[in-house]
């Protein structure tokens, strides 16, 4: 699996790749860190969520609109801000 961000394409899934998901207690985000076959971080994906936890079906999180992508270089992308803007515009119209 490859994902394109602006000018760059990043591989997130492949032979030897692994993902680590973190669900910090009392926080409103979930962090998924992707590692390549050499164990180097490819990216960390932060889902901003209303809540997360575990129930009888497994782990869950109530995803909100904004997501962040943090690269090993320190570069950070804000994703889905347009969806948040659209939701706010629709709420204003009601």
Automatic annotation (TrEMBL):
Pfam family, one: DUF402
InterPro entries: DUF402 (IPR007295), FomD-like_sf (IPR035930)
Gene3D superfamilies: FomD-like
Coiled-coil regions listed in the entry: none
SUPFAM superfamilies per UniProt: FomD-like
Domain DUF402, first and last residues per copy: 22-89
PANTHER family (alphabetical): DUF402 DOMAIN-CONTAINING PROTEIN
Name under which the protein is recorded: DUF402 domain-containing protein
Species: Exiguobacterium antarcticum
């Amino acid at each position: 699996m490859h994902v394109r961000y602006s000018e760059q394409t990043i591989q997130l899934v492949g032979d030897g790749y692994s993902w680590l998901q973190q669900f910090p207690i009392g926080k409103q985000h979930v962090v998924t860190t992707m590692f390549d076959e050499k164990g180097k971080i490819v990216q960390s994906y932060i889902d901003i969520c209303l809540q997360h936890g575990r129930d009888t079906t497994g782990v869950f999180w109530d995803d909100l609109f904004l997501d962040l992508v943090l690269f090993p270089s320190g570069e950070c992308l804000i994703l889905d801000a347009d969806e948040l803007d659209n939701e706010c515009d629709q709420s204003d119209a009601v």
